[in-house]
Each structure stands twice: as structure tokens, then as C-alpha cells.
Design brief:
By secondary structure, this protein is an alpha+beta fold. The chain contains 4 helices and 7 strands, in the order E-H-E-E-E-H-E-H-E-H-E. The protein has one domain: 3-Layer(aba) Sandwich (Bit1). It is 33% helix and 27% strand. Strand 2 and strand 3 form a beta hairpin.
């Protein structure tokens, strides 16, 4: 199935595996909770219903913090929605503390370890061109 939109997650390449998984999960909730990408609930053969998931693929890339910042800033000039995760959020304990911590930094000073993007496929493809897929 072809989609005219694309969902990508860009994760800092030098994070520990648990951090990569954690960042990816948080970024996915930011996009899934705000964009029209969630499908219908699932039901197994016994009639048990499960929560719905994203109806389209989520592509995972790795990049350096500097490259993520460059991509994030480029996304501002397009019709792309973004979600971020900064290094400081590994130390906070709740959503209110997370938002307060992010607010302490200007855009150029964000210590990015993850960026999620949602938008038109062709715009996302141009912005992430050259990135490596997560192994």
C-alpha cells in the first residue's frame, strides 16, 4: 500500500540500546497521538480485541546529534510536524518536568538524541536523504 505521508524516527547513533528503544517509543507516541495515522483495533480468532497500531510503516534512521539538529531546522520550513527527545529527558520523572527541561534550551542549543517527523512523503524523503537506516 502506498501512503502520501511518511513517519520517520531519527535516533542518536551512540545511545545504549535501552535508550534507543525508549526514545523511539516516546517519539512514536508524539506522532501517533496527534496525527491521523492510527488504524482500527485488532481482534484475534477468539474475539479478544487489542488496541490499534499505526497503519503505515515507521522508518528508523540513525544520525549524529548535529545532523538531527540540521534536519529538525530544515523541517521547520516545510509542512512537517516534529517531536523531539533531548538528552536531559533521561533524568526527568514526568511529562511536566520533561516540558520544563526542554523549555530551558533555545532550538540551536537542544541536546537532541531523537527526532520524529511526520509529513508529506516527498518532503520527508528530501530532508532525510543520505541518512542510514537503523541496523
Amino acid at each position: 500500500m502506498k501512503y502520501d505521508t511518511k513517519v520517520v524516527m531519527i535516533i542518536e547513533e551512540n545511545l545504549a540500546m535501552w535508550q534507543k528503544l525508549n526514545v523511539t517509543a516516546f517519539l512514536a507516541t508524539g506522532i501517533g497521538g496527534t496525527q491521523p495515522i492510527i488504524g482500527e483495533p485488532y481482534q484475534d480468532g477468539d474475539g479478544i480485541t487489542y488496541l490499534p497500531m499505526c497503519r503505515q510503516p515507521i522508518i528508523l534512521y540513525t544520525a549524529t546529534a548535529g545532523k538531527m539538529k540540521e534536519i529538525l531546522i530544515k523541517s521547520f520550513t516545510k509542512e512537517i510536524q516534529s517531536v523531539i527527545y533531548t538528552e536531559e529527558l533521561f533524568e526527568t520523572k514526568n511529562d511536566m518536568a520533561n516540558r520544563a527541561k526542554v523549555a530551558e534550551f533555545k532550538t540551536e542549543a537542544l541536546n537532541l538524541v531523537g527526532v520524529g517527523l511526520y509529513g508529506k512523503k516527498n518532503q520527508i524523503d528530501r530532508i532525510v536523504k543520505g541518512l542510514e537506516l537503523h541496523p
